Amino acid sequence: MNATAKQAASTEQVDTATMRQNVFLALEPGGETDAPPLAPEKRGSLIFMLRDHLVQLIPEVEKKLGQLPRESSGRYCVSACVGEARGKLQACPARGPDGEVEYARRLARVLRALLDHFEDAGTPSSQ
């Protein structure tokens, strides 16, 4: 399998449409805190899916990170986003009535940012 075929196979494994759909479920169209709270029975499964998406996407974004110029601002931004995503995976929901909702939203925001980097990795960096 040549390099192009390997990259295509790797990209096919990442279902960005499903990931974005789950981001939408956590954030709703308004974006952030004005979204209605998730139903309690759906929170755990959504958090599980968002975490799983991050686990799948982080290595793929890191592969694309290696293709960016070393001293570029784009590389720095992507690297910071990957670090933020890893931190969110290590975190846990806060206690309290909105802990799981806020945690799901944090996961969704960082997943959305990673998806943007993953999908835009082919475009040249500004520096």
Descriptive notes:
With 127 residues, the chain is mainly α. It has one domain. It contains five helices and no strands. The radius of gyration is 16 Å and the shape is elongated. The termini are far apart. The N terminus is likely disordered.
Ordered list of secondary-structure elements with their pairings:
Layout: H1 3-13, H2 16-27, H3 40-65, H4 73-90, H5 99-120
Helix pairs in contact: 2-3, 2-5, 3-4, 3-5, 4-5
- SSE string, helix = H, strand = E? HHHHH
Distance between the termini: 33 Å
**Got a strand count?**
0
Round the Cα radius of gyration to an integer and report it: 16 Å
Major beta sheet, specifics?
none
Number of helical elements: 5
Residue stretches low in confidence (pLDDT < 50, at least 5 long) are 1-9
Give the fraction of residues assigned to helices. Answer: over 70%
Oligomeric grouping of the chains:
single chain
Mean pLDDT across all amino acids: 83
Structural class: mainly alpha
Q: What would you call the shape?
A: elongated
How many domains, as an integer?
1
The proportion of residues in beta strands is under 5%
List keywords for this structure.
127 residues; mainly alpha; 0% strand; disordered N terminus
The gist of it:
The chain has 127 residues and is mainly alpha-helical. It has 5 helices and no strands.
